[in-house]
Structure formats: C-alpha cells, structure tokens
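Section: Multi-chain targets

For targets with more than one molecule, the full set of components is provided together so that the structure can be written out for the assembly as a whole rather than chain by chain. Components appear in the order listed by the source. The example entry contains three components.
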Amino acid sequence: MANKIRVATTSLAGCFGCHMSFLDIDERMLQLVEVVEFDRSPLTDIEHCTNCDIGLIEGGVCNSENVHVLREFRKNCKILVAVGACAINGGLPALRNHIPLEECLNESYIDGIGVENPKIPSDIELPLLLDQVHPIHEVVKIDYYLPGCPPSADVFWKFLTDLIEGREPSLPYELVHYD
Amino acid sequence: MRQFIQGIAENSHYQATHLLHILRQIQSHYHYIPEAAIEQLSGLLNIPRTQIISVVEFYSFFHLAPRGQYELLISDSITDHMLGKKDMLDYLTKTLGVAVGELRDDGLVSLDNTSCTGMCDQGPAGLVNGYALTRLDRSSIDKIAELINQQKPLNEWPIELFQVDDNIYKSGLLLNQQIEQGAALRSTFKRGIKETLKEIDNSGLRGRGGAGFKTAIKWQFCSEEQQTERYVVCNADEGEPGTFKDRVLLNSYADQVLEGMAVCATIIGAKQGFLYLRGEYLHLHDKLQSVLDRRRQNGLLGSNILGSGLDFDIEICLGAGAYICGEESALIESLEGKAGIPRNRPPYPVTQGYLGKPTVVNNVETFLAAASIAINGGDWFANIGTEKSKGTKILSISGDCARPGTYEYPFGVTVQTILNGCGAVDVQGIQVGGPSGVFISNQEFDRKLAFEDLATGGSFIIFNSSRNILDAVHNFTHFFAHESCGFCTPCRVGTSLLKKQIDKIVEGHGSAGDVVALEELCQLVKSYSHCGLGQTAANPILTTLERYPDLYQSRLKEISFEPGFDLDGALETARRMANRYDTGAHLSQTESEHE
Amino acid sequence: MSKTITLDGKIIPFEDGQTIMDAAMAAGVYIPHLCHQPEFTPHGSCKLCTVKVNGRNCSACTFPAMDGQDVLSETEELINDRKKITQMLFVEGNHLCPGCEKTGNCQLQAVAYHLNMLDNHFPLFYPNREVDASHADVMIDQSRCILCTLCVRASQQKDGKDVFAVSGRGINKHLIVNAQSGLLKDTDLEATDHAAHICPTGAILIKRTGYRVPIGERIYDHKEIDQVSLETEHVKHGE
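Its structure, encoded as tokens over all components, is:
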C-alpha cells in the first residue's frame, strides 16, 4: 500500500522498556500496520533512517553514538518524539550525573571490587561517554513528549492515532504518568 | 573562644536581633564562623542553631569555612570591569599566589569576587577585611601583597590605599548648603509637628530609593497606627550597582541625614531609629558613630531632645553582603537578626515593620531632603523639579565620562544635560537606575530624569561606543542570580535559568529559538517573582532586547537548534581516560558543522 | 450582607481575615498550590497559586480577600505560566519519578499532571544533593526538596519542635536539620511527628513503609489533585 506513514524508533540510553510497552498495544498493532510502515527500528533491523514522518526516541543521551543516532533521526524525521522518562529528563541513567565521570570509570574498570585486568576500554568501535547524561531536548529540537516509565501502550496508541488521523496529539489526565 | 563569644553576646545583651552584629565580630576575629561558636551562641541567645546557620549561609560576608587572615574581595560591578578589573585581578592572583574563590595554603590570604562595593567612580575597587580599597592598580597590588606577606595589621597600612573621595562635581538645592545642626528640629518644634508634616506634604517629596512613594503619606500612615511603639529606619543599604551617592551623603552630610531621621521620629512618634548601613561601607562606621555621639552630647539625640520632652536615639546596624536587604521588608528582617527575605505584603512596614511595629523606612537622600524641607518649607523644594517630581535628584555617575562622581540636578533634567556636565562623549547608551532600571540608547538623550519618565535611585552608568552592551547584560544577569534570596520559585530558579540562557547566547551557542525562549523566561520571572529583585532581574535583558534586537540576533547561529552545552567538551574526560585521539572521539557542536 | 469577591466570574463569599485561597477553597474552587496547607501560616513562596487580582499578580495563599475584588485564576495565561513554574521546580532538583517511593502520592507530580505537563521545557540542573538516611525511621533526599518549608512550619507549629530550617541563598538554598552533627538522627524528630509526614514530594520519607500501596493504586492514580485538595484540606470558617 502506498503512502503509508513511515515510523522509525530507537533506544538510546534506555532499557527498551518503552519499546516493550509499545508492543503492548497487542492486536492493535495489526490496525496500526495497515497505515504505518516501520523504518529504522529494533522491530525491523533496518540500520539507518530514510525519510520518515515520525521518529520515536527512547532513552537519554549518554555517549557519542547516541548523539549521532539522535541527529540522524532529527534529520530524517518530520516529527521527533521523546518517549519515556529517560528521553525527557535523563531518567535513572542520569543518577550518575552528580558523580564525576572519572570516578565512574575508575570504579567500573580500575579500582572497583572484583575488577580484573584493570584497564579503561579503548577501541575506536566503542562510543565515548559524555560527562553527563542529557535529555534529548537538550541536544536536538523535539516536537512531542510522551512521559512515563514506560508510557503505557494506550499512550502510544492515543498519540499515534491522533497524529495519523490528523488531530493535534494530546494526552488526557489518565494517560499522563511519570512512573 | 568561649570567653570571646560570651563577651560579645553579653555586649549585645543576649539579643537575637543583634545576630548579624555578633556574627560580624566573630567573622572578623576568626575569619569564619566556627561550629563551636554557633553552638555556644545558640545557647546564649536561646535560638536554634539552624537559625544561626541560615543567617551565616545567607550573607556573603559570613563563612562556615575559614577564610584568610586577610580576606580580599574584589568588586564585580560592570564599572570595575570597565576600569580594567580583569587585568588587575589576573595580576593580583599572580602576585598573591591565590586563585579567585580560594584560600592560600598558608591561610594568610583568601580572594574572591563580591557584588558592587559602591566605588564605581574610583575603581577597580575591593575590600580587605571589610574595609574599602579604591583605585587598585599594579603598584597598589604590589604594596598590598607585601603588607599581607609581612602580616602587617590593617591600621599600619598606608591610608592612601583606603582613600575614598566624595567627587561632588555639581551641587544643587541640597548639597549646596548643609543645614545648621539642630536647625531642622528647632524649626519642627517651632512650627509644630502637624504643620511640619504639612510642609513635607507640600514639598511633594517622594522616596529617593527609586520607587517614589510620597514621603508625607508614608509618615502620616505610620503616625496614625494604633500601636504607639514605632520605628524610623534609614535605608543605607545602597547595593544597586553603580550607586554610591548615599556613601557620599553619609560621609559629608551625616548630620543632616540623622536630623532628617529625628524629624521623622518627631512626626511619627518614634523613640528608636536604625541606620542600616551596607557592610561594604564599614569604613564609614566609626565616623558615623562619632557623629551620633556628638549629637547626643549636643542634645540632638537621646532623651529630652532640645528640651522638647521627646526622646529619640539611633543605632547603626551593619549589613553583611546581601543586595536584597535594600528591599525594605528584607531590611527589616535583617535588622531583626534574620536572613533578608522579603515579607509578604500586606501588611506593609508602616503598619507592621520592625518587630511587628509600625515602621517608616526611607532612603538616606529622603531624610536629607526632609531635614532641609523642615527648615525651608515645602515651597522651597516644590518650586524646583517637575509637576510630578519635585526637587532635585542626587546622581551617582560612573562609566565612560571625564568626571565620574556625585551630581545633583533638578528633576526634569535631560539626559543630554547630564552627559554634557560630566564630560561624556561618543556615548552608546546608559544604564539608568542600575541593573534593575532601564538601558537607554543614544536615541533617547532628550528624555528626562523624573518619576514620570526615567525613574532612578541614582545610578547612571555611561557606556561609550567601544563597549559591548552584552557584556553589561551578562554581568547584570549574573549579579541578580547571585543576589536572589531564593525564597520564591520564579526568581530562585528563573534568575539561574536566565544566567544559563544569556551565557549560551553570549558565548555564541544560541540559535534561532533561543532569543524567543529568553524573552519568554524574562516575562515569567518579571511577572511572578515575589519582590522587586525578581520583578526587575530581567530588565537588563528586556530593555536591551527592545533597543538592540540585532545585537542578540547577530550572536545567533543560522540554524534552528544548538545544544546548550559543549558537546565535544563533554567527551574530554572519556577521551583522556581512554587515550582516544581519533576523529571518532570528537563531536561537532551542531549537525550542520558535522556535514 | 456578606462580603464577596468574584473568582473567574463566579461570586463567592468570604469572611474578614480570609485569604483569596481560603475563600476559594471554602467555595469549592481549587487553585493549584504546593507550599500551602491551610493548617499552617501561609508562606507564599512556590507561586503556583498566583492569581490576577484587579489586574495584578498576587499569591492567593497570602493575599487577603477584600470586598469586590475581581480575581482571575483559570485563564490560559495563568495555567501556562503555572506549568512553567512547575517545570522550574522539576529542573531545579532531581525528580526521577520512576525511582521515587512517593510517585503517585506526590503533590509536585500531581500538580504537574493536573497542568498536563509533559516535558521539562528548561535545561535540567542535576544538582548534587545529599541523602540523609541516618535516622532510624525517617530519611531525607535533598534532591526532591522544593523548599516549600511545610516541614519547617509543621515542626514549629504542630510538633512544638524546631527540627527543620531552610538555609543558604538563591539557587543554593537547601534544607538543614537542627543537630550539631547536621544529621537527622541527632535531632528530636520522631516518625510520628507531623513534620515527618507533611512533605508534598518524596524529600522526607518514612522508612519501612515503602510500596505498601502498589503503584497504580495511589492517591493521584485515581483522583486529580484538585479533587483531593478540596476534600482533604478543609478550611473551617473563623479558624
């Protein structure tokens, strides 16, 4: 079917819980794929975005790769959506924000309990950590926010159906949760 | 230590209202407030230790951790910067071997910045153990470093280091002739109290702090209160950057100011007055104290003033580094020995002020004028000025002009006349009324100083065309964030957000949406803050944004969005620890650069 | 004849001595607030209850009701700005709801839900703040403190103690406790104290009571804060 709405999704510094919750729309997924085609997403294994209508981003920005991925989404998606607590405010990964990165790395790879062969991993394939975890709206412009840890399946459903049916997306009181 | 603390508490009669005074003595003696002192004071004054800690942590001049035997503070007013503060401070840190914000290893000297010390016509300025230093340059710094390293007591330092000049370049109605001691009180007694209030009313005198409430009405309201225990307070917490006229008045016209307070006390029926002197003016304290003593000896203060049967005395209370205490209800809190947090209003101080009693708080200059009016009558004053702004205004002029100093002009004077008078050429703009006032451009020099046009508490900072206005905006915005008392959300969080946002733009990381976001934030802070500080904290941005939109736009990148933090810089620690030098170990700040 | 004010076009009565907040609540009208609880002296610091009184912004919790006042509360402008003030409170601290025991019972969160706050709008501060878990029964997580001073007032006005105070200036303002060690365990706070239960957020929590009510069955999971506030924060006339 032509002119399906193209949706891409990814998880940055997140736990994929938001993706799991998205899948909880269960049989409604069948309705959704009538009108939606998935582009880059863990659901498709497509590695890079092409032109998309909607990008759903789970997780905050904790390393250089997250920045590259986020920029790719911003560049290719007409509408970019911050999905879940981590994308919106850094979430639990941001608990490390008040500990200096040097301390974090030393604890994990040098002098922490049970560390063998103490060495900071260094490989050009490995993304470098930012000194703090940032919500995605501090790195690129974000159009919509879906709070929750994770946002419930109904939140995804309400938001996407609003967009698909040409309504300004809104979440009623029952669907707004930060936990 | 126990004996020392016991002694000063005893001298303050174990009154918690004297907490600032007590803490000043402890800070000056130990160069910090030791925990043991807090414990002991808590017992002696019968207040919880938390009350003491919250006061210590509120005022800039009190510290819980040791500072140097010589505590050096350098004024951070924009005028100090215009006079070469940065070079001076660099030289100072090098010469003394101590970084800004630090205590030298030997504990001898500590160095830090402080908000405007009111020496804008003779900066760069600073404070050493609270005493004002002026015209700091390399040679005076060499001298200071030597004196510190020799551990010379301050009273053996050369007096020229502490030289503070009045720099009065233009006198008018008030500065031309000082009143004869006691003359205003004699006139008041002779004419009658009601009649004198009438004269003050006829004079049209409005408060000189900037807000411009009619003085006679304030005094009358206070005098009509049911409670008969009433207070007069002189607000000498001159903290608005660029303002220093009260320092000059208290140095050379103190008798007249104090007499104005006595006239007010007579009219409202107060027995006690306070002169709340900003901590930065410590150098004036002893002199003012001796003026008070002399006035007591001459029967102008104390009991049965001039045989009238009226009693009135004045106590000097020193602040400890908090701009917010210039706000009258915060000042009253401070007088009561508490953190200077503005009160909810109503009730207003005229009904419930110091210790909940009716209190008149007026500016130094207001009392000075009131004393003259009590002698010369209302018409004498009202004949000068404009319809809505009677009399004269004393200005503190600083920045780019030939003769920075103190000037008295009739209200209604044009900005151009003032600029001509102080020898200012090639002027780009002027900050009128300090950071909380308005920045005017060189298209507005025909405007008039008056409550109905450009209202001002006296600050007048001139910027010539070589100056970058955003530097001033940046300085002022940081000032407000530093001085916010933190009581209400919009000001506590908003002034810090303004600081972040202006930094982002000034440092060139702003993008299209950032000026809109800045303006929106300004409106929020202005409309919802609890007191005048928050309500005016966005003025430097708002008044320059209105006049120089291009200046802001020119700092913005032509992209729709840029992160507010340095992305590549945020990788530095990881890069260093992983020994990564490849291109993949870097991030561009924006995507367009990356392409 | 009784005195009245007009609140969003509705005429409501008040008694002398009442604030606009008192009058509104007595008339069953909710005005968002966090630092206010009717049983304590109003503080007026969170500014969420800002209303327009005859065109001027005032805190409803401290501003006296006066005959004939025209008060606006639920305007688009005020609702939007209340949301931004709430966002300020969120970015100033570390409010990570998924990891907080108070979630679902938290008034900060509930006000944010009420205002349909979906994001933080402002850059986050991520301040470095301490946890004090020294006390046997009560803990403090400073990351979640919004400086409402309800615990300060509850301790003084209800418990007859002086356990808490707010210290510091500006953005460095923080809660302190009354012990030489600076630790909660050395204060005279008891878990039964009013002050230990008054916190609108998860800054002060009672130990060993966590998650007794499962997430999804908590106060604001069922009811919006306006309803809860009107039902529980009764203002009795003449008090």
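The first strand of chain B starts at residue 70 and ends at 75.
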